[in-house]
Amino acid sequence: MFSRSKRFIQLVGPDVFYWFPACILLGAAFELFKIKFTFMGVNYYTVFRKKQMQQQLEDFENWLKQMDSLSAQAVQSQIDARREKK
Description:
Transmembrane segments: 16-33
Largest sheet: none
Shape: elongated
Strand content: under 5%
Distance between the termini: 84 Å
Number of domains: 2
Order of helices and strands: HHH
Keywords: Membrane, Transmembrane, Transmembrane helix
InterPro entries: UQCC5
Number of strands: 0
Pfam families: UPF0640
Structural class: mainly alpha
Protein name: COX6C domain-containing protein
């Protein structure tokens, strides 16, 4: 294990500051690849947006169901309160 890490440090070099811009450029190239690469009309971000939209729609639907049940409970409690007054 120690020899592997030692070899890696020798490969990378003692000065990491030379590798920092290279890693930045590599990350930027990967992001550009994700944006520009399209396979059969689909790329990373179209799939991401589609899944994100599905999740947002499910969350909104659940919120509407909760609001519907709360309003039904409120109406039922008002009906029960009016019956008790009579």
